[in-house]
Amino acid sequence: MNRTLSHTYTHPSVLAGIASGASWADPEMDPTRIDWAERQARAAIPFEVVNGRPVAPTDPTGIRYGRNELGHWGEALCADAVVIATDPTGRRWLAMVERDDDHGWALPGGHVDPGEAPAAAALRELAEETGLDLCGHCMNPELLPARVVPDPRASDEAWMVTVPAVVRIYPVGPEYLPALVGADDARRAEWVPADSYAGLFAHLAATYGGEVFAAHRAILRDLFA
């Protein structure tokens, strides 16, 4: 990977988070003081450390040093709930949320807490962001392989890895889709027609003037091509 760019940037919101003691903001300002061996050992996807600084296992972002809009250094492990409802006509619907940070429409999801399983994190985030609580329904999500996502908030030293957790439900008709209500960091939550990725993309543009969150485009293309 060519990393000749040297642009340095950390968003003011990250600095404000550190100043306020926010749990999502790593307080360490100098990544060379971090125990990278420990973080590498628990990483979902291997990464290198060069001169005491982490290097994302991706193509360069254009921000070589600093954290851009992410609060952590190195890998942050997330889980995303891919809830697909197929009605009796064979039509597929996908639960999506409009992010409140203006980064578009996304899968419900978020950080995996320490000691938490990705499947449990995905269902927890689903309930928090949409009100759809499947945790008590003996759901066993199908976990897809962990992948680095092209999050627009990332840098070469702070990146996101997600584990997509697929849950399939079968309502008796479109009018019986479970109600979704946007909450937490979701501006709103909706069932989106998902017979194809192109159709999903077009629906979001025509109905909401929105687009798919950049970090989730490849995941959804793979699932709904």
Strand and helix map with partners:
Blueprint lengths: L7 E3 L1 H9 L15 H7 L5 E3 L2 E3 L9 E4 L5 E13 L5 E8 L5 E2 L2 E3 L6 H13 L11 E2 L3 E3 L8 E12 L16 E8 L3 H12 L8 H8 L1
Parallel strand pairs: 1-4, 5-11
Antiparallel strand pairs: 2-3, 5-6, 5-8, 6-7, 6-12, 9-11, 10-11
Structure description:
The chain has 225 residues and is of the alpha+beta class. Helices cover 22% and strands 28% of the residues. Strands 5, 6, 7, 8, 9, 10, 11 and 12 form an 8-stranded mixed beta sheet that branches. A two-stranded parallel ribbon has the order 1-4. It has a two-stranded antiparallel ribbon with strand order 2-3. A hairpin with a 5-residue loop joins strand 5 and strand 6. The protein is elongated and about 55 Å long. The two termini are 28 Å apart. 36% of the residues are buried.
Please report the total strand number as a whole number: 12
What's the Cα radius of gyration? 18 Å
Strand portion, in percent? 25-35%
SSE class: alpha+beta
* Total of helices: 5
Mean pLDDT: 92
Q: Show unreliable segments.
A: none
Concise overview:
This protein is α+β, with helices and mostly antiparallel strands and 225 residues long.
